[in-house]
Specification:
The complex is a heterodimer of chains A (160) and B (773).
Chain A lengths: L1 E8 L2 E8 L4 H9 L17 E4 L2 E4 L12 E3 L12 H8 L9 H14 L5 H7 L11 H15 L5
Parallel strand pairs in A: 1-5
Antiparallel strand pairs in A: 1-2, 3-4, 3-5
Helix pairs in contact in A: 2-5
Chain B lengths: L18 H6 L14 E7 L5 E7 L1 H5 L3 E6 L23 E2 L5 E7 L2 H9 L2 E6 L6 H5 L14 E9 L2 H6 L3 E9 L11 E7 L4 E6 L4 H12 L6 E4 L15 H13 L2 E5 L2 H7 L5 E10 L5 E13 L5 H10 L10 E9 L14 H17 L4 H6 L7 E2 L5 E2 L4 H11 L2 H4 L7 E11 L14 E7 L5 E5 L8 H13 L6 E5 L16 H28 L7 E2 L3 E3 L7 E2 H12 L2 E7 L22 E12 L6 E11 L6 H20 L5 E2 L2 E2 L18 E6 L18 H16 L5 E2 L3 H21 L1
Parallel strand pairs in B: 1-12, 8-31, 10-11, 14-15, 20-21, 27-30
Antiparallel strand pairs in B: 1-5, 2-4, 2-6, 3-5, 7-15, 8-13, 9-10, 9-12, 13-14, 16-17, 18-26, 19-20, 19-25, 22-23, 23-24, 26-27, 28-29
Classes of the chains: A alpha+beta (160), B alpha+beta (773).
């Protein structure tokens, strides 16, 4: 069965016919073509597919697309404004929170979600917010630095 | 007076030049290459560990509407493998299956759901054979051969004795022997394997995009498997989501995708899932080590005897090299004489192992540094003083003919001793807390390439055209380690130009020069040197052009990057003016830079395989790990790590720190939680919950000290930074636990249940003694 899905995707209204069993992850990647959101596991293990639904981090691999009716979904592609990286993106880039880059969209969306609800998190709050995202390159040290730096940039006026 | 100065590009903190793509979601990885009309590929994998194939029945699957192609072992009788001496693997099993999960057939269909249904309709008929899941089981005399050409299931036997261990042990004040077991571990890189193969039947051309560290090897193996001329194949490496060694050889994924594309006459995207990525494996083998050391009271090591068994899995892969590294790399870190090594690489009915980060050196280093620590304690010597008593003096050659030109280990040791407060804090941290110390090392690229063709080890081209932009062309595979950035930095440094002027093109065989790939930490050293060579050629061309224009001699020209001038009073020419002059005679300028290792670095001939371990420069690492052990639960927490790494010269301090932290952390995963497990050959840890990698909440602060020993042959003095710090973590951890609770763990990983059991055992023994007293 398919149904009509109407949602706000990256700030734009959008309507698609989606199968009932279509995952949000596959909808974003295969139907819409937003491949910034990554598949890193067989379901709910790694956090690479994290997107924001109404500003809250959510695993798109465990979410049916059809349940996004009327919701606001933001992916990694939504963060840059007028061609400028957001605070979290800048943090991950400049502090090397990203090496191979594959887990990065998930980490950045989880971090952006954190900063939207808590603009100045301490280290424990950062660790707790990113506890379900796996990175295999960095050892997380520079990811923590990246998020701290992003919070500073955010406080100075940059969008998260 | 002109204030222009050349731009400086090395030695500082430089964010990766491809970072903006990665943080914005624009970076394309193989699975992201979605094209209209492409077919979905899926594999049918063996449910048997070891069996003779009687029939692969694909008739019903072929009848399913939407199925465009099915291939089986019958379609390809050719073999592949990374080592020219051990190419015995078929992309799809023929005659026999040798591990559970080995690909037997593959389907290309109009969509993934159809491909999945078709796979479910494939029938495999077999005659089961006895299967062996451990090295010990595969070695019993009655075991049948997994490969006919490897009698007794021994992939490779290694034996050497340099000096006399008998005499060495005789000279020792203390001789101890211990056994160690390191579980099999997996790279588990974040990007699952994928390949997109596009066959153009009209022109008989094949294009393959693959998630690989070695596009050139993939190219070679595609030609071999497809029986196509290499000139008809194009291999592209898009962004790659990590590798850590599992992609340093051609994988069946890209070969099967290409076989399907050729059969279907179209484009096939093969994406395998996390469980299949684990089964594709190429991780570090389960290793059993028996180690015997002789130590004098003055801290000198007098003899080493080491026996090593590796459970290699069902195919050769890098196996011969892995078992040789384990022996050869006993050397080149300490001044050792009287060394005996016995190595056995064993074939088993488990997924094939490969070249995991720190290839061949890690488990041996764990055993060595553990036993040394234990013996130091027994002789009441400071473990750091024991290392100091055994330093090499560079330049030197080891007993197995490895060339050591730069040796920053003493500075690494000094740095971690100071930074961790070792002298004041060791043994004084209180109950359940401890400090552990260990060292490790690694090569900066194998001096002899796997495929010896006589060509230079690395080639880089630079193109300069009317627009004045520098385009660096290299086959070096950036897999997240930052090689593309290093190329831009080295070229920019020689030319004195800002990175904004420099673009780097990599990863497309149609455009870039061949490169052997990203493995054995070769890229910064070898490709970096080739890039410097190319940049010097270009600089010469530009200086000559400036001299012509300014009517001066080339040796009078001062190159300031954006300005070329003939003397301090001359206002000079802008870079663009020099480029215009340089192009007048030849049009577009292309220069080539090469690098080759020197013969003295190629290792020796004292035993068969002695070339393995030879490199132009060894990196060195020292670590102090601080732990807290909860004696009620057995949970070990790593509170802090201090690591110093001798990378010769940090071309990019940011990426060196990132590589060193990542290495240490990956060592932590192996030491504390990661292990594969099989039930009758069935992988039961094929996901990231059962294969437990540390999360951000388990991971400690890792403070990095960069030691610069300025290698005489390294690019601006640099050596590797991405592997050498992994191994030291493992023994530093177990040494710290021994310091904290007085129990030594010789088996990895040190999981809470193992710690708890050991604490309980000690408690019971203690209670028993108390009662007896």
């Amino acid at each position: 069965m398919a149904r009509l899905l109407e949602l706000m995707l990256n700030g734009r209204p959008r309507t698609d016919a989606v199968a009932d069993n279509l995952l949000l992850l596959d909808y974003l990647r295969e139907i819409v073509g937003l491949t910034g959101t990554k598949t890193g596991c067989d379901g709910g293990e790694c956090g690479a597919c994290t997107v924001l639904v109404d500003d809250r981090p959510r695993l798109s691999c465990l979410t049916l697309a059809a349940t996004m009716q009327g919701r606001r979904v933001d992916t990694i592609e939504s963060l840059a404004r007028d061609g400028r990286l957001s605070a979290v993106q800048r943090g991950f880039h400049e502090k090397l929170g990203s090496q191979c880059g594959y887990c990065t969209p998930g980490f950045i969306m989880a971090s952006a979600g954190l900063l939207r609800r808590n603009p100045s998190p301490n280290e424990n709050e950062i660790r707790a917010a990113l506890g379900s995202n796996i990175c295999r390159c960095t050892g997380y040290v520079k990811i923590i630095e990246a998020v701290k730096y992003a919070a500073e940039l955010h406080a100075a006026g940059a969008s998260p | 007076m002109n204030e222009t100065v050349p731009a400086r590009n090395i030695g500082s903190y430089v964010p990766m030049i491809d970072g903006p793509e990665k943080v914005s979601g624009r970076a394309k990885y193989t699975a992201d290459l979605i094209a209209p009309g492409m077919l979905a590929g899926r594999m049918y994998r063996s449910p048997h560990s070891h069996a003779e194939i009687l029939e692969v029945d694909i008739a019903e699957a072929l009848r399913l509407p939407g199925v465009k192609a099915i291939v089986t072992g019958a379609d390809c009788d050719r073999t592949f493998g990374v080592l020219p001496i051990a190419r015995s693997e078929h992309p799809l099993a023929r005659d026999k299956v040798r591990y559970r999960g080995e690909p037997v057939a593959a389907v290309a269909a109009i969509d993934d759901a159809t491909a999945k249904r078709a796979v479910g309709l494939i029938r495999l008929k077999v005659r089961e054979l006895p299967a062996y899941y451990t090295a010990q089981a595969a070695l019993v005399p009655a075991a049948c051969n997994i490969h006919a050409h490897r009698p007794g299931n021994v992939e490779r036997d290694v034996l050497f004795e340099l000096g006399s261990v008998e005499q060495g042990f005789g000279d020792a004040d203390l001789v101890r022997e211990a056994s160690y077991n390191c579980a099999e571990v997996c790279q588990n890189q974040m990007e699952m394997h994928a390949a997109v193969a596009d066959y153009d039947r009209e022109r008989d051309r094949m294009t393959v995009h693959a998630s690989t560290q070695v596009p050139y090897y993939v190219h070679l193996m595609l030609a071999q498997i497809l029986d196509m001329d290499m000139s008809r194949i194009r291999v592209v490496k898009p962004h790659v989501g990590g590798g850590f060694g599992c992609r340093t050889e051609t994988l069946n994924v890209e070969l099967i995708a290409a076989l399907l594309a050729k059969r279907a006459g179209g484009c096939v995207r093969m994406m395998i899932n996390r469980e299949e990525t684990f089964i594709t494996h190429r991780g570090r083998p389960e290793t059993d080590i028996r180690l015997k050391l002789g130590l004098r009271r003055d801290g000198r090591i007098t003899a080493v005897e080491c026996e090593c068994y590796q459970r290699g899995g069902a195919h050769s892969g890098y196996g011969v090299v892995t078992i040789l590294y384990a022996g050869s790399m006993l050397y080149a870190i300490y001044d050792l004489h009287n060394v005996k090594y016995i190595g056995k690489r064993v074939l088993t009915n488990t997924p094939p192992c490969g070249a995991f980060r720190g290839h061949g050196t890690v488990d041996i280093r764990f055993a060595f540094e553990s036993l040394l620590d234990q013996m130091a304690q027994e002789l009441e010597l400071d473990p750091i003083a024991v290392r100091r008593a055994n330093y090499l003096t560079a330049p030197t050659f080891t007993d197995n003919d490895l060339m050591v030109n730069s040796y920053g280990l003493p500075e690494c040791v000094d740095w971690v001793e100071r930074a961790s407060g070792w002298k004041a804090r060791k043994g004084r941290l209180g109950n359940g807390k401890g400090l552990g110390f260990a060292c490790s090392h690694y090569i900066s690229g194998a001096s002899k390439p796997v495929n010896w063709t006589g060509e230079p080890h690395a080639t880089v081209k630079i193109k300069l055209d009317f627009d004045g932009s520098i385009v660096v062309l290299s086959g070096a595979a950036d897999i997240g380690q930052g090689s593309t950035t290093i190329l831009a930095q080295t070229v920019g440094e020689v030319l004195g130009l800002d990175l904004a002027r420099i673009r780097v093109l990599t990863g497309d065989s149609e455009v870039v020069p061949k490169d052997n790939g990203s493995y054995s930490s070769r890229v910064t050293f070898m490709v970096g040197n080739a890039a410097i060579d190319a940049a010097h050629h270009l600089r010469r061309v530009l200086v000559e052009a400036a001299a012509r224009k300014l009517e001066a001699k080339p040796e009078e020209i001062e190159c300031l990057g954006e300005i070329y001038r003939a003397g301090a009073q001359d206002k000079g020419l802008t870079f663009n003016e020099v480029v215009t002059e340089a192009l007048r005679d030849t049009g577009t300028i292309t220069v080539t830079g090469n690098y080759s290792t020197i013969p003295q670095s190629h290792g020796g001939k004292k035993y068969r395989g002695a070339a393995i371990g030879g490199t132009m420069g060894y990196s060195y690492s020292a670590q102090v790990v601080e732990v807290s052990v909860d004696e009620d639960t057995g949970v070990v927490s790593v509170d802090k790590v201090w690591v110093a790494h001798d990378c010769g010269k940090a071309l990019n301090r940011l990426t060196v720190e990132g590589q060193v932290q990542g290495s240490v952390w990956m060592g932590m995963g192996q030491a504390m939680s990661e292990e594969t497990a099989y039930h009758d050959g069935l992988l039961i840890t094929g996901n990231m919950l059962d294969y437990r990698v540390p999360t951000i909440e388990d991971s400690p602060p890792i403070e990095v000290g960069i030691v610069e020993s300025n290698d005489p042959h390294g690019p601006f003095g640099a050596k590797e930074a991405g592997e050498g710090s992994l191994a030291a973590f493992l023994p530093a951890l177990t040494n710290a636990i021994a310091d904290a609770i007085g129990v030594r763990f010789n088996d990895l990983p040190v999981t809470p249940d193992r710690v708890f059991a050991a604490i309980e055992k000690r408690r019971r023994a203690h209670n028993g003694r108390s009662r007896a007293a």
